[in-house]
Amino acid sequence: MGRPLSELKSILLDLLFLKNVKSLSATNDLDTSDWKTMREMLQEHRLGPLMHWRLTRECPEVSVPQSLRDFCAKSFKKSTMRSMTLQRELRHLHQAIEPSGFKYVALKGAWLAFHAYPQPALRPLRDLDILVPERNIFDVYQALIDAGCRRVYPNKGCIESVAKHARHLPPLWSVLGGVTIEPHLRLTTPHPGNEPVSDLANEEMTWTHIVYDEVAGVKIPYLSPADQLFHLIDHAVYEHKFTNGPLTISDLGYLLQSRTVDWTYFWSLTQKAERIRGSVLALKMLEHFWGKQDIIWPENLTVEHEKLPDMISNACQLILRDVDSRSVRYGHNLIGRKSFLKKITYLLSLIFPSKSIISARYPIAERSVLLYAFYPVYWALFLRRGFEFLRDKQRNVYQAETAILTDLEVWLR
Fold it and tell me: I need a labelling partner for 322 at 20 to 30 A (CA). Which of 209, 287, 372, 400 fits?
């Protein structure tokens, strides 16, 4: 009889991040089905290389099946080769943008992998994210295309409409292929009906604080450590509610380990954007696994510390959630609307999206009369996801995760 999924998640997170793993004996009692589930979570969240590092460098004495060790070793080797490709493509990307004179910064993994983690393979990258000032985004996008990049989905979305509703323009294949590039014009996604939030992309200080680190022989521009830390927390806690995966923990840890953060500036960012609670939660979660960090906490911190252990526990459950499960997010968004009127308004916005949203999803200009022909295509997809929602709603894990998400969001307010 296998262990409950919640227990397996806790064991896996301890294996990956807990500094004192010598006291971890729970792995001795896991059966074959448990290890199969653990391997699936490692694969889904790109954690094989990090686990390989842990099992060979930091805690080789931990009892795990040889098959899992072999899987992690293979993942590490594959990620090592991939990191070389990414460095090459980041160099080409820089060389494509630099002649234009427009500013940009490489985001998150493109800095973390090559400058924070002890080995680039430990931080697998799905793609290369860059941030460009909104006024220059179309020029930089065209510069990349002129350099040989091409759209991944050439028949999906009018870029002018995409720019109104998304963080980034449609992804591009890199010059030599094999790597996708996401040119961002903002770091937070606009949500219709919600109050606009402060976005680092629009702050002049973000661009004056740019730092440069070398990759493949060229100096790449990046966010400052404080801006990088703020972006990582905002992205993980507020944009994804921790569901973007456990690499968030090591991202924060290795960032603080490798760079000095201007804590006064960082906390001023969190206060302006109303991100103090989520920042405290993320940093306390890091300390839960990695031990006390050199964090300068703000004075008169108004956070209910007695509730933090429960919130950390909730975050640990969400951080290993199935990334393909959209139903929990839809259910949570619906439940989060307290009044009946707000629920109906939310549902109607999903059923009858604006012309601009349809144009952002499909290859049709917003003003074209042919745009209405794409509504049935959208509704077919909406119905399919509606059936998925009704199916998943019956699962116990759905009920539990929706409740955890709701509790977390209430606490963050």
Answer: 287
210 close to 221: Cβ distance less than 8 angstroms: yes
pLDDT value of position 337: 65
Query: In the predicted model, is pLDDT for residue 223 greater than 70?
Result: yes
CA atoms within 13 A on the CB side of 149: 28
Which pLDDT belongs to residue 330? 61
Exposure of 298 in the CB half-sphere (CA atoms within 13 A): 19
Assess whether pLDDT exceeds 90 at residue 226: yes
Report the C-alpha gap between 399 and 198 in whole angstroms.
32
pLDDT in tens, 246-287: 999 999 999 999 999 999 999 999 999 889 999 999 999 999
Strand 127-131, strand 180-184: pairing = parallel
- Please report, to the nearest 10 degrees, the dihedral formed by the alpha carbons of residues 245, 246, 247, 249 taken in order: 130
Q: How far is CA 86 from CA 111, 113, 126, 128, in A?
A: 11, 10, 10, 8
